[in-house]
Design goal:
By secondary structure, this protein is mostly helical. Helices cover about 50% and strands about 0% of the residues. InterPro entries: Cro/C1-type_HTH, Lambda_DNA-bd_dom_sf.
């Protein structure tokens, strides 16, 4: 009976990962390293994880990716990864991993109407979230986004979003929304589900 318990717990953990990430992390990682022809340790380096931590996530001994920035990098790599087939050229793989490793995945925060600065999450905060900088909506849709706040006195036309999901998608890309959901999941599961739905990845029921 004692030998069955760890296996049963891992099965439970993998199902929890399926709920959080759409599939067990082992399945996602094995797909990526199979397509790219790289080792799990090299993937861990690109994501900003230690090989031991990634191994625990893949095996199901650990459930969650604790750092939202790591989750955002994993989602970015999953989006940019070519479809299954022949392995891409080594130079292309290296360029893709370097892009993911150095990606600056940030939220764009709209300016407050009162003109007062609103403090945002910062590196080293309660959830270990990456720095969030104010900017245009383009900053939320991948690396290199560098939108600037409107200059004081400069007015821009505003179009009211139709739904809450529209409002969320206007200021953050899918990777950032899912990363935020992972950060909020423990304390605010209902908000986390709203964020995942806005990202186009509703929680399975």
């Amino acid at each position: 009976m004692g030998t069955d318990r760890p296996a049963a717990q891992i099965a439970v953990n993998r199902e929890r990962q399926r709920t959080l990430y759409g599939a067990p992390l082992g399945d996602r990682v094995h797909r990526l390293i199979g397509i790219l022809g790289i080792t799990q340790a090299r993937l861990a380096g690109a994501l900003g994880l230690s090989p031991a931590m990634l191994s625990q996530l893949v095996s199901g001994r650990r459930i969650k990716i604790g750092d939202p920035a790591v989750l955002a990098r994993l989602m970015l790599l999953d989006e940019r990864c070519p479809p299954a087939g022949g392995p891409p050229a080594p130079a292309a793989v290296t360029a893709l991993l370097d892009e993911v490793r150095t990606a600056q995945l940030q939220w764009s925060v709209p300016p407050p109407r009162s003109g007062r600065r609103v403090p945002g999450p910062h590196r080293g905060g309660p959830d270990g979230a990456a720095a969030v900088r104010s900017g245009g909506a383009a900053a939320a849709h991948g690396p290199g986004g560098g939108g600037q706040l409107p200059r004081r006195g400069h007015r821009t036309a505003a179009v009211a979003p139709r739904t809450a999901a529209d409002a969320l998608r206007a200021v953050a890309g899918p990777a950032q929304l899912v990363a935020a959901a992972a950060a909020l999941d423990r304390g605010f599961p209902e908000l986390a589900e709203v964020l995942r739905q806005a990202a186009g990845r509703p929680v399975p029921r």
